[in-house]
Amino acid sequence: MQVLHKQNYKEVTLFIVDDDDIDAIALERALRKLRLLNSVHRARDGKEALDLLRSGAIPAPYIILLDLNMPRMNGLEFLQALRADPMLTHSVVFVLTTSKSDEDLVSAYRKHVAGYVLKQHMDRDFLEVIGLIEHYWRLVELPVTKE
Amino acid sequence: MSNDAGDIERANHRFRQVVEAAPNAMVMVDKSGAIEMVNTQTEKIFGYSRAELLGQTIDILLPERFRHQHPDHRASFFSDLSPRAMGAGRDLYGRRKDGSEFPVEIGLNPIETEDGIKVLSAITDISARKRMEERFRQVVEAAPNAMVMVDKSGTIEMVNTQAENIFGYSRAELLGNSVDMLLPARFSHQHPQHRASFFSDLAPRAMGAGRDLFGRRKDGSEFPVEVGLNPIETEDGTKVLSAITDISARIKASEHLAEHRDELERSNKELATFAYVASHDLKSPLRGIFQISQWIEEDLNNGDTAAIPSHMNMLRGRLRRMENLLDDLLAYSRAGRLEGGMSQVDLGFLAKSIFEMQAPPEGFSLVVADDLPTLNTLATPLEQVLRNLFTNAIKHHDHQGGCIKLESTLTNKNYYEFSVSDDGPGIPPEYHERVFIMFQTLRPRDEVEGSGMGLALVKKIVETYGGSIRIESDGMRGTSIRFTWPIKIEGRVTNASSS
């Protein structure tokens, strides 16, 4: 394990947009297991997520982990609104979903998601996903929202 | 005078030559009917030699059955001398030497001669033409569709048996009448114009391109038709022969087909939704259960038992959710199929008993309007609709108690409209459509347990019986769900849409 110098970068916020409590808990457990101390925020549907983002409640830089099937505003509708909003359009989004539908996959990439991850492998937990995202935020320069 | 005699002789000779050269049979008779002159054509068509004819009475060339009237006809011709066709309106026949008959056309010309007035008749054998006419008639008769021939003024001149069959008129009722009698009254005023324009530009074509055409039967009923028009040149001018096909059966068949196609599309769409939903909504509690079991295992291994009871709770919650989803999915797929029988339903009474059965939490009440009808209907699906609406009103209420109202808001001749209103949190207008979609919830299932099937099921049932459903709510307070229910249930409406 390499030693990280925290002062070199701003800690990334993980913003979980998922209506399922178990998935949210699982993500947090995975973070804890990997001893990651990033701050985690959560919205239960697209509408709540948009409200939180627009109110500035989610500290930048952040990575959005987005479920597709949600009440009120689903993941694809959320992406549509996100990309249409000049303040939020550059947000980095990973889709985390059970939907294997090609239509969903294509629609998500058309909205410029950073990755489309299937959470269908029940045995692999979220460790892999969080591992991937951890590498991602360490290597990749994330956009910082200007005031 | 010998000069005169010579002139007359020459004139007579010329006359004979002209008669001889005529293309049809020429026979000259005197007042008594005695044959004075014939030409070669006469010998040919009647089979007699000139010698056999000269001096004989003209009756020899007539079928025996006409001979007795002939002197009268001849007398009347001599009393009013002018060239004309013989036997207007009657069929005329000649008789050959061998006794056989053949149809003829005869022109009569009075001729003044020195020995008095003679009649020169020009006789044409029209067997060939008659045969053609007969053949045409047979072709028309044998046609598989109705055929009607009209003249320029629209008068019916010929019809076949099919025409009698599909219009319900006898031949005698049709012939000589205007073809307008075969059209619905609302079209007959335009028909003369259409007919005139057809006669001005004669070419075979289909009638009424792009329009739906209808025929009218004798009993006044209408039926859809296809009409092909053909101009026909005849001796008495241009006629139109129309071929008329009754296409009711074809239209019905294509409507049937369209219905089946819609039904198929609907059920395919439903299946696609089901597959999508099954892969997500049914799988997610399963994944949850798997995950929780892993956490419990991990926590046990770490000797950390504090969270185990809550995890166990969550686990059972997921199992219940899974079970509800499956139950509701089954109910949805059966909606409109398990309908029980027709029975007399006192709607107010039914509503109260459904409400009681749900054991609503304290503080909830149901108010039913006084004017609710008692109707003869399929009780089971109506009950399903009300039960789901009541459940929703109670489950999604944001206060400790609330009031649900059932009212009859409108009635027309086919439908009642009922409304179930509550004083809960309301549904914002932007979600009024979404809530009817399978498995759609407005709040996370972890907050309000629900399959998201209730309104989808209600909509499917209502539409199965031809009704419609809509939501009235400003999203601030209170929701009214209005749905229509048929006064007389005829059966399922196959093209109920699903979303």
Automatic annotation (TrEMBL), chain A:
SUPFAM superfamilies (alphabetical): CheY-like (SSF52172)
UniProt cross-references to InterPro entries, sorted A to Z: CheY-like_superfamily, Sig_transdc_resp-reg_receiver, TCS_response_regulator
GO biological process assignments: phosphorelay signal transduction system
Domain Response regulatory: from-to ranges: 13-134
Listed name of the protein: Response regulator rcp1
Gene3D superfamilies in UniProt: 3.40.50.2300
Pfam family, one: Response_reg
CDD domains noted in UniProt: REC_Rcp-like
Gene: rcp1_8
UniProtKB/TrEMBL annotation, chain B:
Catalytic activity: ATP + protein L-histidine = ADP + protein N-phospho-L-histidine
UniProt domain Histidine kinase: residue ranges: 277-489
Transmembrane regions: none
Keyword Transferase included in the entry's annotation: yes
SUPFAM superfamilies referenced in this protein's UniProt entry, alphabetically: ATPase domain of HSP90 chaperone/DNA topoisomerase II/histidine kinase, Homodimeric domain of signal transducing histidine kinase, PYP-like sensor domain (PAS domain)
Annotated GO MF terms: phosphorelay sensor kinase activity
Pfam families registered for this protein in UniProt: HATPase_c, PAS_9
Phosphoprotein in keyword set: yes
Listed EC numbers: 2.7.13.3
InterPro entries associated with the record: HATPase_C_sf (IPR036890), HATPase_dom (IPR003594), His_kinase_dom (IPR005467), HisK_dim/P_dom (IPR003661), HisK_dim/P_sf (IPR036097), PAC (IPR001610), PAS (IPR000014), PAS-assoc_C (IPR000700)
Record keywords, A-Z: Kinase, Phosphoprotein, Transferase
Ranges where the PAS domain occurs: 11-64, 132-184
Residue ranges constituting the PAC domain according to the UniProt record: 88-138, 209-259
CDD domains, alphabetized: HATPase (cd00075), HisKA (cd00082), PAS (cd00130)
UniProt name for this protein: histidine kinase
Source organism (scientific name): mine drainage metagenome
